[in-house]
Structures are given as C-alpha cells and as structure tokens.
Amino acid sequence: MSFFKELGRFMMAGAVAHAKWELEISRTILGDKRRLFLLGLLLIPIIFGGFAFADSLGEVLPDVLGGKKAYSPAFYSTHIFIISILIGLGAGLITGCIGAGGGFVIAPALMSAGIKGILAVGTDLFHIFAKAIMGSVIHRKLGNVSVMLAVVFLIGAIIGATLGGMINRFFYEINPVMSDAFITTIYSLMLGFLGTYAMNDYLKARKTLQKPDQDPKDCSQVHGQRDEGCELGSLPNRIQSISIPPMVSFDYDFTPGGRKISWVFLVASGALVGLAAGIMGVGGGFLTFPIFVYVLGVSSMTTVGTDIFQIIFTAGYASISQYAIYGFIFYTLAMGMLIGSLIGIQIGAMVTQVVKGITIRGFYAMAVLAGFVNRVFALPAKLSEMEILPISKEVGHALEVFGIWAFFVVIGGFGVWVIGTFIVNIGQLKSRGH
Fold first, then answer.
1. How far from 415 is each of 108, 234, 405, 410, CA to CA, in Å?
2. Which of 61, 98, 254, 311 has the highest CB neighbour number within 10 Å of its CB?
3. Using CA atoms, how far apart are residues 132 and 310, in angstroms rounded to an integer?
4. Domain range for residue 21?
5. Does pLDDT of 158 surpass 90?
6. Which of 46-60, 221-235, 241-255 has the highest mean pLDDT?
7. Which of the pair, 346 or 1, is modelled with greater confidence?
C-alpha cells in the first residue's frame, strides 16, 4: 500500500511541476510583443485560405505525406478549429486554476471529438513543442542547467521517443482501431491511478480541513507544493553510490564538491520519459521532475532548468521525426489548442486568488477521473470492433457515448464555473493588481 502512496505522490509532483512550466511559458508568450507576433505568423495559414485549401488537397495530401499513414491534411474546417480552441481552453483552465497538469485531458478530449488516437498524440506533442519554442526561457535558467546531465538524459529520451513512436505506428499499421485501443488503455491506467490518488488526497484534506500543521513530507499538495527534501526513502543515495563509469557530475552550486551519478541511470530515465512522450504525447515533462528530484537526487533548481531544456528537444524530436513526417500532426488543431491553453492558463491562475484551495483539489480529482471514465467507457467499443469483446455494436456505442458525455459535462462544467468565478470577481482581482 505504501508503494502506491509513494507512486501517487510521485505522479502528483510531476503534474504540479509541469503545470508550473506551462504557467511560466504562458506568461512569457503573452507578455512579449515579439512572441505574440510570432504566434500571429503561425496562424496566418489558418486565417488566410487554409480551410478552403483543404478541400482541394483533401484527397491528394494524405497520399503525398505517406499513404494510409497520413490520416488528414494539415488544414481542416472552421468548426474543428473552434473545438480545438475550446479543448485547449479547458486544459488551460485546469492547469492554471488547479496548478496540476491539464494536458492529461487533451488526448482523451481529441479522441472523444473524433480524432484518431495516433493523430491526437502527434498533434499534442507538436502543440507542446510549439509552446516550448515560443515561450522558451532557457536563457533565464542556463545557470541552473547541467549541460552534461541534460545531454546524457536526452540520449535516452531520443531512444525512448523513437521506440514510443514506432510502437504507436506499429499498432496503427496493423489496425487503426487497435492503435486507438492501445492509446486508450495507456491513458485509462494512468488517469485511473492518478485520479484515484487525487480523490483520496482530497477526501483526506477535507477531513483534516487543511490544518496548517500538515505533514511537510506530503508532496501531493496542489499549489504551494514542497519539492525540496521530499525523497522516496534513501533511493537517491543508493543510486548515486553505484559507480558505473563514466560518471556525470552536477549540483556544484548546491552541494560542496557536487554530486555524481552514473550515465546508465540518466539514459534509463531519459528513455522512460521519451517513451511516455512518444506514446502519450504529453511531452514527458510530468515525469522528468519527480524522477530527477525523488529518484536521482538532483536539486529542484537544476531539475527545473534541465526540464525546460529537455521538453523542447524531446517534444520536438518526437513530434517531427515520429509523427510529422508520417502525416500524424494536425496543424490546425495544434494552433487552436495553443491559443486556448494560453488564455485558459491565465484565467485559471487568477481564479486561484479567490477560490479555496480545498475546492481546487476536489475539482482536479474530478477532472482526472472524468478523463478516466471517458477512456474506460470508450474501450469496449474498440475491443468489440476487433472481435475481442463479445458485445453488440449498439452496447459499445452506448457506453462510448456515456463516457463522452460524462467527460465533457465535468470538464465543461468546470470551465463554466472558472470563467464565471473570474467574471464575478474581476473587480476584486483588479484591486489585487491582476
């Protein structure tokens, strides 16, 4: 039982760390006129004739990009662009308001909207890559980046991302439905575990009414999370004591003489992060922080800088080499999600100033569990279509529809609540300088 508790803390820490990155990136982009201009340039193909152009290329472009592997052209209809903005807005509201990764709901939302799983993954990766490039703050963090740590880690990340992309394409080549079922299963397991932990954490917090003497070792707090001193037992010390040359040195600014770790563990960690990015399309950022801090024993300051560094290269490599060249990136969707998330994160972050923390934690648990229900109820129809599960097509469709409605009702209701709270409290937020 303690293992699952620690694993839950591990995943929650990653979700919170990735949300902090998203918020910083959003502020950087929206606070810089040059970056906003760059965003405008990225939208030009959509604004000027992209949708009409799609009709003429709709049947030709997929073949040009790679036969049946290319699922759709780079441009599509106005309504799907609007849907992508709303999906990005919902994810951004969750990230900004809750302070934990709303990106977990993007792929389930896209798949619920009718986008094939492999296209949802590739598009999500490209959206993260575009956001990271536009809002890059590496120059502010270079003092905290261990170059060798990052480079060795990226070797593993490239290997993992390549393997993840190959796995997704392998299943898609066999049967697109099998590909969807595989991605759905992965998301079901991840969202189910994280959602259960988050709900249990929320219920415990309600019982204790968030007493100020909360255990400082509890790393599961949403907003104000402690990331220093939280370790999974003595694991980092044991790992750093294993000498398999060459050894990589780091954290000279935080520990006299610095720390050392074998390249083997860095490559293995990078491979795990890259594999998650390649299969799930979440950039891998939610795994980097907890792995570095709680497993490898890297200081949180060095981890933040290295995480920013690796997200750009991991998401960029995975999205381009494993998905874009095969036609598995939906440009219009990516740009819509980017716009929606930038706006949603800012609104959500401001709402946290006027909403109780316990309420926010409850909403996070509900949002993640809604994603879990969405994917679990979508699975029977896919298994039935592959003749693995003996249920009728009607039953499978009914379950899938239920999952879709449950998901969008929860996420939509949360979005309406956040935006409504923001509008009602605009005066109060202005008086606080927001």
1. 16, 41, 15, 9
2. 98
3. 10
4. 2-431
5. yes
6. 241-255
7. 346
Structure tokens given for 280 = 């799930």
**Which parts of 104-249 fold into alpha helices (H)?**
106-112, 117-134, 138-141, 147-174, 176-208, 235-241
The total of structural domains in the chain comes to 1
Among 36, 201, 16, 227, which residue's Cα sits nearest to residue 103? Answer: 16
**Of 15, 11, 50, which is closest to residue 294 (Cα–Cα)?**
11
CA distances from 306 to 148, 149, 215, 270 (A): 10, 8, 29, 12
Confidence of residue 217 (pLDDT cuts 50, 70, 90): very low
How many other CB atoms are found less than 10 A from the CB of residue 387?
Answer: 7
Whether pLDDT at 62 is above 90: no
Neighbours of 215 (CB within 10 A): 11
Overall residue count recorded for the chain in this entry = 434
* pLDDT(95) > 60: yes
Q: Which of 52-61, 283-292, 363-372 has the lowest mean pLDDT?
A: 52-61
The span from the CA of 198 to the CA of 305, in Å, is 27
Q: One-letter amino acid identity for 396?
A: G
**Dihedral sign, CA of 351, 354, 360, 362?**
negative
Question: Model pTM?
Answer: 0.81
In the structure, what pLDDT confidence band is assigned to residue 63 with cuts at 50, 70 and 90? very low
Both tokens assigned to 181:
């079922």
CB-based contacts of 303: which residues, under 8 Å, 6+ apart?
17, 288, 289, 292, 293
Contacts of 221 (CB under 8 A, 6+ apart): 16, 214
